[in-house]
């Protein structure tokens, strides 16, 4: 998808919610304006934009992710339970309407071309190793089974999106930063630093636990 492709997109702004491409996001839709949004998108291409709102400032992010409705179920009182899948990311250009729900002109954004695939593959392997260590150490500390999914993405870009989506739900600001990066290497490098820091902390805690 070209960076210069532009379209109008209905927006669903949410406090501290960041959607990544190819990741699932369940939604509970109950406000009347978003019921109208859902009805509208179901009658068209089933797509709308998820954009993070900073709960402290009330400001809406400039970068969001398009969501496609995969499943929906509406109860007798009009509430809907929806499962969406993240598609391409977008940049807000301008708000075109505020009521009954917000719409905006957006342009699609993608990661830039890979300059050094060998380096990127090596970084992906480091990130995967750090992720596996974090999961293993967490399982040991919590004395329970914690496993990575069998279908963990192998491609660097898709892996970086998966990791971004599975950060602690208190890390929405960091998730937004990761979503906005348009260099796969930069995104994976940032994630490796986070995972390696967590790995070191968990390893220290397991040593203390073993000494008890």
Describe the protein:
Helices cover 40% and strands 28% of the residues. It is globular and about 60 Å long. By secondary structure, it is an alpha+beta fold. A hairpin with a 5-residue loop joins strand 4 (63-74) and strand 5. The termini are far apart.
Write the layout of secondary structure elements.
Layout: E1 6-15, E2 24-29, H1 32-42, E3 47-53, E4 63-74, E5 80-97, E6 103-109, H2 117-142, H3 156-165, H4 172-180, H5 184-211
Parallel strand pairs: 1-3
Antiparallel strand pairs: 1-6, 2-5, 3-4, 4-5, 5-6
Helix pairs in contact: 2-5, 3-5
Low-confidence spans:
none
Distance between the termini: 56 Å
> How many beta-strand runs?
6
Quickly give the structural class: alpha+beta
How big a fraction of the residues is strand? Answer: 25-35%
The gist of it:
With 212 residues, the chain is of the alpha+beta class. Helix content is 40%, strand content 28%. It is built from five helices and six strands.
Question: What are the defining features of this structure?
Answer:
212 residues, alpha+beta, 5-stranded mixed barrel, 5 helices, globular
């Amino acid at each position: 998808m070209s960076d210069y492709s532009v379209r109008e997109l209905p927006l669903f702004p949410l406090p501290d919610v960041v959607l990544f491409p190819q990741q699932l996001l369940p939604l509970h839709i109950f406000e009347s304006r978003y019921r109208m949004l859902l009805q509208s998108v179901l009658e068209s291409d089933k797509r709308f934009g998820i954009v993070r709102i900073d709960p402290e400032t009330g400001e809406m992010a400039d970068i969001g992710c398009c969501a496609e409705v995969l499943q929906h179920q509406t109860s007798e009182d009009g509430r809907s339970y929806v499962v969406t899948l993240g598609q391409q990311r977008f940049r807000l250009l301008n708000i075109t309407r505020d009521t009954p729900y917000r719409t905006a002109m957006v342009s699609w954004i993608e990661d830039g071309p890979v300059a050094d695939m060998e380096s990127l593959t090596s970084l992906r392997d480091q990130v995967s190793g750090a992720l596996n260590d974090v999961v293993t150490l967490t399982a040991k500390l919590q004395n329970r089974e914690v496993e990575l999914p069998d279908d963990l993405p192998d491609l660097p870009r898709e892996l970086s999106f998966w990791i971004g989506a599975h950060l602690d739900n208190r890390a929405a600001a960091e998730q937004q930063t990761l979503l906005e990066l348009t260099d796969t290497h930069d995104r994976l490098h940032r994630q490796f630093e986070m995972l390696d820091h967590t790995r070191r902390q968990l390893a220290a805690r397991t040593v203390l636990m073993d000494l008890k």
